[in-house]
């Protein structure tokens, strides 16, 4: 026997975040708004959804926001070894769209920093012009995920790039990312994993799914492989993130309804991390200075 078993949806424990929870847009503070805007459109294929003053919202048709760029020409660079964004991860619907993503990045003259097979997914990695990490990935069908010792089996293996390119459809104009493209997960650099687990799992209610990566923890809702990655690889003991610097401004967690948002707010308050209400949503800050917006779907 291989010791593997197929992954199946996880029944949430009492106090777990709603299993329908997903990730929403990631907001970045950038010094050069025009350059960043052009990159996310050309290299990533995002569509312009909204522009107001020094703020640009980009996403997938027919209007799903994925990345918000906030221009701040005088913002200093994020300090080395500080907490903040490791990467935002844009999930495309299938392998053919991952192939289109690969071709789009190369056509735009951008380069990749890595390409991996994680067993549950196939992923491409790159940086934007200001050094913010990006993952472009597609999931394998959930019924193909395996579990080992109660954890979802994940690894970092070489990606079959030729196999991905072999899925590239012939012909057709590049119309950018298609409907169904989402923010699959957000990966953060944190100062300390126990504090990260106390906040994101014990207080917020995400369930740990993978603990066997040295220096990292992965948590999710509803049995997904991970909605949040948390690592200390270059940030152990580091200074907290601040929106005054370039990089992560905030990210959005989307819950199915107002009751689910309120339940999370109550748990955060009980755990000593009170959130504040703003524009019909709750805003919380993790122990590392990362701001997250908790809102109901459709709001």
Question: In total, how many domains does the architecture comprise?
Answer: 1
Oligomer: single chain
The top level CATH class name: Alpha Beta
SS element count, helices: 5
The helix content, as a percent range, equals 10-25%
Q: What is the correct CATH architecture?
A: Roll
Biggest β-sheet description? 9 strands, mixed
CATH homologous superfamily designation = 2,3-Dihydroxybiphenyl 1,2-Dioxygenase, domain 1
Gross geometry: globular
Mean pLDDT: 94
What attributes does this structure have?
disordered N terminus; single chain; 2,3-Dihydroxybiphenyl 1,2-Dioxygenase, domain 1; 299 residues; alpha+beta
Structure description:
It is a single chain. With 299 residues, this protein is of the alpha+beta class. It has a single domain, classed as 2,3-Dihydroxybiphenyl 1,2-Dioxygenase, domain 1. Helices cover 18% and strands 36% of the residues. The protein is built from 5 helices and 20 strands. The longest helix is centred in the middle third of the chain and has 13 residues, at 95-107. It is globular and about 55 Å long.
């Amino acid at each position: 026997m291989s010791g593997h078993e197929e992954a199946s949806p996880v029944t949430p424990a009492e106090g777990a975040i709603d299993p329908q929870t997903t990730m929403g847009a990631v907001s970045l503070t950038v010094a050069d708004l025009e350059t960043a805007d052009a990159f996310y459109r050309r290299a990533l294929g995002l569509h312009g959804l909204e522009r107001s003053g020094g703020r640009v919202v980009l996403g997938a048709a027919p209007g799903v926001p994925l990345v918000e760029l906030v221009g701040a020409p005088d913002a200093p660079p994020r300090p080395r070894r500080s907490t903040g964004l490791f990467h935002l991860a844009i999930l495309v619907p299938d392998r053919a769209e991952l192939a289109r993503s690969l071709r789009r990045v190369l056509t735009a003259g951008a380069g990749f920093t890595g390409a991996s097979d994680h067993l549950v997914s196939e992923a491409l990695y790159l940086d934007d012009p200001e050094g913010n990490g990006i993952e472009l990935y597609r999931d394998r069908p959930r019924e193909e995920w395996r579990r080992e010792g109660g954890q979802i089996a994940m690894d970092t293996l070489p990606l079959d790039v030729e196999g991905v390119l072999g899925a590239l459809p012939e012909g057709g104009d590049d119309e950018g990312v298609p409907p169904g493209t989402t923010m699959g997960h957000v990966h953060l650099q944190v100062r300390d994993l126990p504090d990260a687990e106390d906040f994101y799992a014990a207080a917020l209610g995400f369930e740990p799914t993978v603990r066997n990566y040295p220096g990292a923890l992965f948590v999710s809702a509803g049995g997904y492989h991970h909605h949040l990655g948390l690592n200390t690889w270059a940030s152990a003991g580091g200074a907290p993130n601040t929106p005054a610097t370039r990089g992560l401004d905030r990210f959005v967690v989307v819950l199915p309804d107002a009751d689910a948002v309120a339940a999370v707010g109550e748990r955060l308050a009980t755990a000593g991390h009170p959130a504040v209400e703003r524009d019909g949503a709750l805003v919380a800050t993790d122990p590392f200075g990362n701001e997250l917006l908790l809102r109901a779907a459709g709001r």
